[in-house]
Specification:
199 residues; alpha+beta; 4-stranded antiparallel sheet; single chain; two-stranded antiparallel ribbon; TolA/TonB C-terminal domain
Length: 199
């Protein structure tokens, strides 16, 4: 207890000394700021007042002119100059000639004539396995020359090439059959697509 009583005056003396030292340091710093012989001067520039909206000059803006489009010449299919016998066989695919043979008559009548043929894609699994085959399809040609109602009549092997053959045939385009100057729909036409690996 005596030691505790002896340390209290010592702690008070240390505390007083610390406060006196802090007061001296703070006071010296304030005097250094006040007595600085080279003070830093900051100038603030003032911008001129903005022109009121009523006095501003009005500028009329016109919308930009749209760019001129080049004139497009419509493409026409000349049935006289187009070959009517499609003998080209893409590699890996053989297309059997259809039961539709284009024929033209003097009164303007004509049978459906193929204009666009899209080759089917060889299915990757069949190509990997070296599988060959064929698909016989039946379909209709509408008044606009589009292929619709595509069905599989027969195939070998079954269900290997069916999807690829149907998908390609749906993209084919024809000049539709014309009777008495009127386009008519044709039903139940057939075609066989043969899938053969490249030699």
């Amino acid at each position: 207890m005596n030691k505790l009583m002896a340390t209290i005056p010592l702690a008070g003396a240390v505390t007083f000394t610390l406060f006196a030292l802090m007061s001296f340091l703070v006071k010296g710093h304030d005097e250094a700021l006040i007595d600085d012989p080279n003070p830093v001067i900051v100038e603030v520039a003032r911008l001129p007042d903005e022109i009121p909206a009523a006095k501003r000059p009005r500028v009329k803006l016109e919308p930009p002119k749209p760019p001129e489009r080049p004139q497009q010449v419509p493409e026409t299919i000349d049935s006289q100059s187009e070959p009517t016998d499609f003998t080209y066989q893409p590699p890996g695919l053989t297309i059997e000639k259809q039961a539709i043979n284009p024929s033209f008559h003097g009164n303007g009548d004509r049978e459906a004539t193929p204009v666009v043929r899209v080759n089917p894609k060889y299915p990757a699994p069949a190509q990997r396995d070296g599988t060959e085959g064929w698909v016989k399809l039946i379909f209709d040609i509408n008044e606009m020359g589009g292929v619709e109602n595509v069905r599989v009549l027969d195939a070998s092997p079954k269900r290997v090439f069916d999807k690829a053959a149907r998908s390609a045939l749906r993209k084919w385009k024809y000049q539709p059959k014309k009777v008495d100057g009127k386009m008519i729909k044709q039903h139940d036409l057939t075609v066989q697509l043969d899938f053969k690996m490249q030699q």
